[in-house]
Amino acid sequence: MNIRVTVNGRVYERDVEEHTTLIRFLREDLGLTGTKEGCGAGECGACTVFLDGKTVNSCMVLAVETNGSTVETIEGEAKEGKLSVIQEAFDRHHAVQCGYCTAGMVMSVRELLRRTPKPTVDQVKEGIEGNFCRCTGYQQIIEAVLDASGQPELANKGELKHA
Amino acid sequence: MLQRFHYAAPATRAELFSLLGEKKGRARLLAGGTDLLVNIRNGVMKPELVIDIKKVSGYSGISWSSSEGLVIRPAVTINEVLRDKEVRDRYPLLAECAHDLASYQIRNRATVIGNVVNASPCSDMAPALLCLGGKAVIASARGEREVPFSEFFKGVKKTVVQDDEVLDRIVVPASSVGARGSYRKLKRINGHDLGIVGVALMRQDGTLRLGISSSAPTPVLVDGLKERDDAEKVVAAARKAISAISDVRCSKEYREYMVEVYVRRLLAEVR
Fold first, then answer.
1. Which residues of A are less than 8 Å from B3 in CB distance?
2. CATH code of B36's domain
3. Is residue B85 packed enough to be buried (19+ CB in 10 Å), middle (13-18) or exposed (0-12)?
4. Is the pLDDT of residue A163 over 50?
5. ipTM score here?
6. pTM value?
């Protein structure tokens, strides 16, 4: 089936098989391998991308469903070679260990900060509940989100304080 | 990699009904896809045709009127329900159940109708819909019929919806506006997870209802109770209505025990 999708501002027209998922389409047809597939069943969130402005698990969307839609992935996060505020905060706080969850994590954090520009620690945890980090680097990720939202002081408070 | 199937996105109910009639059970409906595509991936379902219902005219949006109540259509996602002002103001129990369903990005795709029509014993939307007296309006080329959710579920993953039919809309009656209620869901972790047990309790005009998930082959409604009934009577009715089993998530005994714990807590909390 022929589809036309805008990904990170660029229009792609491709013939895709009807059973192809969005993640396969992004990675294999478009070569955008920044987005990772983890569980393939909506548990881990590694494959999170924006579809028409909303975060979705791209392993559970068919490519044909995105005909006429806009998709944003981690490849669109940095602009003109400059990391985004979220990416810089992840870098600063060592919120990346193996890196497999990072692409999806950054998408969920962007969505969280759009909805809630100054989230509390609990709101950060809820905002990333659909994204698993199996290195369990959650503390650094939460610190990075608090920093990216202009609240670095919260990162060193309460339950997040290092012993 | 998913197994092969064909994809159709009908624009009208008539086209949808004709595709369903043609395929006679070899088609599956796609709304959010958060269950369907996992089932296809795991080989649990092997449809020849996947029919995307999101583009069917009239299948989007939530509406409310004092005559009809709340109408939820097939493309309505869980997050749309959570954002809807009418739902939050008039049916807070529905919003509470919706909030406990999976993760944010799944709620962006998963639909209310998908959650009930899949008829998982651990459906999060069913307890609220059972308590609130919700009805399923089921449509096909043969016409429409209404089934209250108390008669909708027939077994694990089984409902009254036939192969040529579609759950066309959910109606929550206006008479349930103002009911007091709350939902408790026990999970293995604080993050997103399927429920170990889920209990909704609703009080309105002297009556008391429970909607219980993950504790029987189907979500269960416990009806016929009064607000003034003592806790022992309510607990006994809940225990009688469920038929818990042991599975990967917990034992039968723990389930029964936690249903009782949640019923007691909710009785004290929802006044």
1. 19
2. 3.30.43.10
3. exposed
4. no
5. 0.93
6. 0.95
